[in-house]
Amino acid sequence: MVKIVIDAMGGDFAPKQQVLGTVAALKKDKELSVILVGDEPQIKAELSECEYDESRVEIVHTTEVIGMEEIPTKAVKTKKDSSTVVAFRLLKEGKADGLVSSGSTGAVLTAGVLILGRLKGVSRPALCPIIPNHTGGGTFLCDCGANLECKPINLVHFALMGSAYAQTVYGIEKPTVGLLNNGTEDHKGLLLQQETNALLKKVEAINYVGNREGRDIMFGDVDVMVADGFTGNIAMKSAEGCGKAVSAIMKKAFKRNLFSKLRALLCGDIIKNIKKGLDYEGVGGAMFLGLTKAVVKGHGNSKARSFAVSIEQAANAVRGNMTAKIKELIDGVDLASIQAQAQEAAAGQAE
Amino acid sequence: MVKIVIDAMGGDFAPKQQVLGTVAALKKDKELSVILVGDEPQIKAELSECEYDESRVEIVHTTEVIGMEEIPTKAVKTKKDSSTVVAFRLLKEGKADGLVSSGSTGAVLTAGVLILGRLKGVSRPALCPIIPNHTGGGTFLCDCGANLECKPINLVHFALMGSAYAQTVYGIEKPTVGLLNNGTEDHKGLLLQQETNALLKKVEAINYVGNREGRDIMFGDVDVMVADGFTGNIAMKSAEGCGKAVSAIMKKAFKRNLFSKLRALLCGDIIKNIKKGLDYEGVGGAMFLGLTKAVVKGHGNSKARSFAVSIEQAANAVRGNMTAKIKELIDGVDLASIQAQAQEAAAGQAE
Fold this sequence. Notes:
Chain A has 351 residues and is of the alpha/beta class.
């Protein structure tokens, strides 16, 4: 039995969608149990309308909620009885194996580091969403915003953590890793990308395939795309904006007149397929990599289905021993040695 | 009569598509004349299959071509008889009013600065493509890769130049300007974005609306999106990758079986509309802003239609006095004064 603690109050549609998503996850996964953290009367009211296995559900009552607009560090330190803080405390105390929250990203990142703590050896935890891509699968984008300013070593850790995640949770044996850059040649990018590219080439534990471009996130050949948090955030949201524009254009085109509307009916499954191809909901939340336990940050506007997938991700990360794999990969890299090798290679090229 | 000099040899399908595009542009615009620069026999062979007004076409023969893989500075300096270098020289000498090339981006950027020269007062010329957006129009993204590493003053100039471009060539009266960032709040971004945001607020010549996110490029409310070249490049290509993924998914969905194929026939106009909404070809090339004359960099894989639009853009930039407007806006900004104001504002907030 895997136990996931759930921040039931975080998100635009909390706690209704969180409770519905939890019930769906419990129905699908008989080896899952949960702790729902939040306002007990509200949670019970939602649960009362569902059928579920009561023996696998606990509720922990809290009185506070961290709002999306609050300053994360301040909120985490002062709102001791908020659903987010209490959920992380329960996780830290060993009452659960993993956590899902669709609350404020800043608060989740802060509570993750301050309350739960990062894995020894990880220079910076990172947020890793899965971006739907042309294969029908997804690309692991690491980092997408937890660390705006990065050093090469941070990006090397993102590569290792993203690989461990893809391997242990999605069963991708040797995930290919690319570095998000403005071109594929070795000389491309700012100093950060140039140095990181040189280092990644020397990391034997990952399947590094070199620099990749923005278009390769959704239309490329890599499983894991590595970026500093600022660049990753811009890339993710730029792709998302395109998806939104396509949906809007498609909607408009199919609603133009009666004939268009009839055709929309006739093409319902095809439209559904296209939407599915752009579906951020279906791929669940972003894994917060580099903490001592599995933490999934769901979308702020998570609906039940997306939230259920986030719970599944957290449970699978526990079952796949993702955290141990991250530690193994990080510990296995002798940074001083790969730095020396990268410098040697650079000197060799310059000669 | 506006005269545009055309690098007929640059691009994957040169000179055929360049010649066809030129003929199309001449047909549409009776006040346009051109100089085609490149291999004369090849150009003449292509022209011989077209109907066009010979009195508006000159050919200047060249013997060299700059390849996509060549080092730009070296190529521009050594290949004196390349189509790109000769085209820029003719422009510099006043033989033409504007230039279009779909050759190597690096070579065009280098020749633009070294041969033609930048406008006095412009800290960095920038490449400004138009990204199709949900309105059916486009977003001016400035810079998309000419300057990887930028200072706030460069981004202020990009904002001014992008505004001048939108105004004079597309008739947008008070183009809204956003700064590409990882969130809309003032504290968002790296130091570069924070400082730039503070400066842009003080520039009265533009209609600055604040920080914007990646998704706002295709699904937002700004006409001009300002970014350093690295971030702009990542954003542009990430959106492009999404568009490519959508096209691929759509194609697959409509080709699944005979019934799907029949429906594709029935929905041809709708599919066309969606594709049109993502159409990078239809919006032409990227304006290379900040040089002494109008220069348009067409896509490397320009087909005739896209190339014709690029020529139209260059001609309209000449007619709209875009370059003079850029100079006027840049000269009108007292940088020392807005920097002092931004610092005062920051100090006021800190108190």
